[in-house]
Amino acid sequence: MATRVFNKPQWFQLKTPKKVKNLWDFPMISTLTKLHNKLDNLENKIEVLNTESVLLKAGVETKTNTESLKQEIALLKENLANDRTSYSREIKNLKSQIENSRMKRNSEVNALLSSVSSNLNGLKRTQNIIQNNISSQAAAISGVISNNSKMTSALFERNPEAFLDFLPSPRNGKSFNGSTFEAISAAVPTDNMLVAQIKNYMDVDLTGYQLYLDEGFVAAPAPNKIFAKTAEVATFESNNKLNFAAEPEMSYRIGDTDISLHLYFIYGGKVQTFAAALLPRSAPAKSIISFDCTQYNHSGTAGSHKCVTNVGFNSTRTLTVYEGDIFLKVTFETTSYPRPGVLTFVSVVLHQKYTFSI
């Protein structure tokens, strides 16, 4: 609180007698000072009372607010208790529903498991029946295959080329240059020519090509390798200046076997002969040459070499040779100009898989 300032009255400014040193020394002035002090004290007390009054008023308001808060808290507690009771009922109902659903699901699952178990037992019985049928059929098939193999072997000995009807025809190789055997045969420029087509029905390649050509010329050579399931073509021309017909012998090794195939043919005015043989792998391409099928003495198995002569003109002849499961079918066709002589070689391996498929 600021100090109260008491200004001296103007009359106190008058000149006083020299004997008086200070006008405040008079009794009246002292009294005024005391009054002034009392007034200050009263003002201080009033200020304190005002402060206490404010605090008291604040306390009353605080008490009022506290009572209001207590009422609100009591109301909230009551609402909370009501909500808790309501939620407890809902939770109880939910638990009851969950338990009912669980019991229902358990009942459905048990029924389903029982049905599945019954079905599995039925399937197992069916499987056993099917397995027994399969075993019986397998035994029957095995017997049929065995009988079929025996019948096939007998048929192979009699007519092996009949099996070719069941096999897909080989694709034409590079030597055809996109053409066909018929087109090439029709397009040769002169007579006294030979067109040889070799069809490899086997699953193995023909390799190691050898050619022995004592007379005549090569017009279009055969490839050094004939791939499996592939056909290739070669053309031979007579030596018209010397009047010598082409007389080639061709040979190929058959896969990794110890067998080589040999083809010999000559098409001339006086001699029309062709021959085929399945010989050892090392036999050279000069093994079966024979004008009239008498110069060659075959020492292999029976049926692995054949020779046909005096075919004649405008005629078609066929021969078949075989060694084990390999056989060759050769067709030799001679026609008058403009068609040349035609040689067709067919080879097929008759393994059990072919026998089974047939």
Can you describe what's shown?
- Residues 32-104 form a coiled coil.
- Keywords: Coiled coil.
- The radius of gyration is 64 Å and the shape is elongated.
- Mean pLDDT is 76; it is low at 11-21 and 339-358.
- The chain has helices spanning 27-158, 181-187, 352-357, and strands at residues 171-172, 193-200, 206-213, 217-220, 230-237, 248-254, 259-267, 272-280, 305-308, 315-323, 326-334, 341-349.
- 22% of the residues are buried.
- The N and C termini lie far apart (132 Å).
- The longest helix has 132 residues, at 27-158.
- The strands form two sheets. Strands 1, 2, 4, 5, 10, 11 and 12 form a seven-stranded mixed beta sheet that branches.
- It has two domains: 10-141; 161-357, Mutm (Fpg) Protein, Chain: A, domain 2, CATH 2.60.270.20.
- Strand 6 and strand 7 form a beta hairpin.
- The protein is α+β, with helices and mostly antiparallel strands.
- The protein is 41% helix and 24% strand.
Features of the shown structure:
7-stranded mixed sheet, 5-stranded antiparallel sheet, 3 helices, single chain, alpha+beta, elongated, 358 residues, coiled coil, 2 domains
